[in-house]
Amino acid sequence: MRRESTLVGRTVSKTIKYIVCIFLAILSIMPFWIMMMNATRGTYEIQQNSISLLPSTYLISNFKVFEGKAFNPMVGFKNSLIIAGGATVLGIYFSCLTAYALVAYQWRLRQPFFTFIMAVLMIPAQVSGIGFYQFMYRIGWTNSYLPLILPAIAAPAMVFFMRQYLLGALSIDIVNSARIDGANEFYIFNRIVLPIMKPAMATQAIFAFVGNWNNLFMPMILLTDKAKYTMPIMVSLLRGDIYKTEYGAVYLGLTLTVLPLFIVYFALSKYIIAGVALGSMKE
Amino acid sequence: MLMGPKKLKSVSYAKYGYIFSIPFVLAFLIFTAYPIFYTAVIGFTDLKGLGKTDFKFLENPLQNFEAVWKNPSFQKSLENTAIIWICNFIPQILLALLLTAWFTNQRQKLRCQGAFKVLFYMPNIITAATIAILFNTLFGYPMGPVNDLFQMLGIADGPTEFLRDKWTAKGIISFIQFWMWYGQTMIVLIAGVLGINPALFEAAEIDGATSRQVFFHITLPSLRTIMLFTLVTSLIGGMQMFDIPKLFLNGGPDSATLTVSVFIYNQAFSGSYLYNRAAAASMILFVIIAILSGILFYLLRDKDAGKLKKQMRELKKAQKAARRAEA
What we know:
The complex is a heterodimer of chains A (283) and B (327).
Chain A: H1 2-39, H2 43-48, H3 59-65, H4 73-104, H5 110-120, H6 129-138, H7 146-149, H8 156-169, H9 172-180, H10 185-196, H11 198-214, H12 217-222, H13 231-237, H14 247-279
Helix pairs in contact in A: 1-14, 3-14, 4-8, 4-11, 4-13, 5-8, 9-10, 11-14
Chain B: H1 7-11, H2 14-42, H3 63-70, H4 72-103, H5 113-125, H6 128-138, H7 145-152, H8 166-194, H9 198-206, H10 211-222, H11 224-239, H12 243-248, H13 260-269, H14 275-300, H15 303-326
Helix pairs in contact in B: 2-14, 3-14, 4-8, 4-11, 4-13, 5-8, 11-14, 13-14
């Protein structure tokens, strides 16, 4: 009798758990699903009923609304790709280099330098925004991609992650035998250490790329030339009055800005989830 | 790692430690340290107006700071930021803990955990700017998906103008933040649970502890450090909240969703170009963040770990002394 009741209790509690999880999953999907479906629907259809689980046939006519307007997803895509790509490559390479300096060499300031990196790990980017803008304005770097790419060279969080990885993965014997063979330190880093770090680089590259791709604050301050706008700035144009009546086009614009992210996410979700979990092991 | 017989040799390589750190240090000095310093300096000057870069120091150096601190909009923005953050963080951490307890329960394993994790985390990776405008559209008036849904389900008779109401607007922003971040927090907490020594759980099992007891007496205390980390990163992120309040309603209605970052942006780049006021506000924000993080670290510091560290240090000292005595 008692066993039966616990069995029933277990089934009930398990069912509740599944219901909650499925509800949360729907909550994650639903806004994006409605967005994508409405991207293919006409303004009149959306006015009649703005929720549809099935696509319609107005995709191309929605596309035509963008013609001659400031919102240009292709330009935004290209610009974001340059900035996010450049920042990711620089960030990864120099974070590995800094981490290697922290792990492989015995130098007097090693420990203080590491403590320093830990201390600046959490400095929020926004607090330096005004000084950064004034500085860039003075040297004529507004409307340039450089101030959005070069700061990636100093990425404390990434250095920290790379260091943790390297501590476990680097065998100093390999480095020493390369030295005996006459390899110099730069060669050793580029040809021996970097390949060892590939898994860590892949994980961090995803996060660095997505983070830079999504960044709004700095590009919005620095880029005033419409031809230089990044994807998130392009998105902000969809709030403008010209789109007040073009519902389908707004949904299509939003969809276009996140489509690349969805593709990347679902292709790499396994690694991304593992990376999030790994990133938490900061102790 | 380079200790031992190779020690002599490794000394000659020490300079590469410095050389390889140069790019990081230079980039940090140029793009982070100098701009922070420059922001602080601008806070004491008369720098305002589009395209201006030259400035004079004010006679009353604290004038901008006083003006910002007493500015009702700034006070409002601080209050909004705090309210929005709290209303997002508390449900976020509670839901994340609940899901962590479910997903790590060994006696009742849930299926499709991987798929659930992927879906719960998904909003986090999507551009916040897009999400802000998407939600603005979803809550549209007089017709929008949420209004249609409410009428379909019979919750409301006619369309509601959600975004006119101050508390609804704040609530929606809190919800967006919550929705974007609970998945991340959950994954981090699950990783934390997997890192707990399994012997603890086995011992509890042998002692006949219930799932609830295990969760409250083993899992939760062990997650302390990770939860502190989550709290601090969420707080620092929350204090800087910009993309969503800026693009969702641009601070409106009636400044109900104006956050500190949006205030700073609007001071400097929306019409008035008051760089000095914006800089002063940035510095105030910086100090507030530093103080709050300091308090959190102090309150929630791991006392045992501190003690252990101290003991280790004393032990090392004793060893050194012993070695010296031997020599």
